[in-house]
Structure formats: structure tokens, C-alpha cells
Amino acid sequence: MKKDDFILKEFIDNAFDLKSHLMEFLLIEEVDLDRFLENAKMDLANLHPGNNLSAAEDFYKEIVGDKHLADLAAWHISSKDYISDTLKLQQRFSRNLVLDFGGGIGTHALANAMSPNVEHVFFVDINQTNRNFVEHRAKKLGVSDKLTFCKTIKETKISRFDTIVCLDVLEHLSDPAFQLDIFHEIMGPNSIGLFNWYFYKGEKNEYPFHIDDEQIVEKFFNTLQSKFIEVFHPILITTRSYKKN
User: Fold this and answer.
1) Per residue in 181-199, is it b (16+ CB within 10 Å) or e — as a string?
2) Most buried of 45, 96, 153, 215, CB within 10 angstroms?
3) Which residue segments constitute the domains of the chain, with CATH numbers given?
4) What does the pLDDT look like over 220-234, one tens digit per residue?
């Protein structure tokens, strides 16, 4: 079996042993974990500051705690087909030095660390619990030597990345266009960025975490269209691939 096929199979089979890692990290039994995962989305939504953008960074940095792990884990377990397609996209483009920005529970960073095409992965997430959990997972999966954990991009001390992965993050930022500017600065002429976004709170506010301000969204698309060129890929998912304009 090819390495890429093995990585995909491991994710589809057990999400890289996610439930086992959660039980060990949270010191929780499986029956309690299942209940925790079942209620994760509502529990996290009840904590969210809503449209208070100034409080959003503190929310993700300090407040979410274990509930964010549970919400992300529930999503990754229930959406394996979709996420496995994003892993296929990574396999198509990821190489050498990889930045995983806002990497959450680490699915994409861990998959990249398993890839022979990737030299090193820099996992950046403002939430300490997320970083600790993914570091725990990396040790369990035997890929610690290919991962560095940072709170900010500046902490990586890398000026150019060959691949940037930023999935399910941009819609949570108060100024996603500014983040695109930063990505543009740290990409070389042959670098690829893998981005997606969902600037929509839902019909019944089921996504209170997402930004939907028209001016912020328009600024984002103006920046995207002026600084990046889309690179075609044949996978039918919302994630797009880009190089610098």
C-alpha cells in the first residue's frame, strides 16, 4: 500500500486514533467521552461572545478549553468523508516546510508529518490546550520529530513556507484579509496555500463563531483576488489552492 493511501485509511478507520487520544488526554472513560462529544457543539456555542469581535481572540485563546477539543473532535469523527478529501488535497500539494495555521486537534498537521514529501510541520494555534493535545497525539503517533508547536507564526522563526494550510479558521478572525496579507508575505513564488472559509452564521445562528460582516468579507475577497491566483484541483470540496499573484 502506498504511504498516501495508508494515511487516508488510518484517518477513515479511526481519525488517527482520535478517541483514544482524547480519553488519555482528558482522563475520561469512553462512555463519558461519547456524552461529551454529543453535547460539544451546543456547549461551545453557549460560551461564545457572539458579535463581540474584540472578545473573540480571548474566547479561542482562553475560554474554550476542553470544549473546543470536543467540538472539533465530534466534527472530525462525523465528517470523515469530507475531511479525507482535504487530506487528499494536502497530499497533492504539501511539501518541505509546512505551516498549519489554526490547526485545532491536529488532523492535517499530523497527516502532513506522516508524509515523506514534508520536511517539517509548524503547528500554530493560539489555544494552549490545542497545542498540548496535538503534541500528545504526535508522540503517540511517532511523528514528534517532524512537528514544532507555536502560538504565533512569528514564533516559528521561518521566513518562507512551501505550503500553508489554513482550514476552518478565516471565518473566525476579526480581520481575515490581514491574515491573507501575512500569508502572502511568507509564501515564495512556488509556495501553495490551501484555504477555505464560511462567512455565514447559519439560518438559525447555528454558527455563532463565524464572521458575516459585509465590509469585512468584501475586504477579504478583494485581498484574495488581488494577491493570489487559484491553482486548479479536481477534488469537489470547498477548500481552494492558491499561489502568489
Assistant:
1) eebbebbeeebbbbbbbbb
2) 153
3) 3-244 (3.40.50.150)
4) 999 999 999 999 999
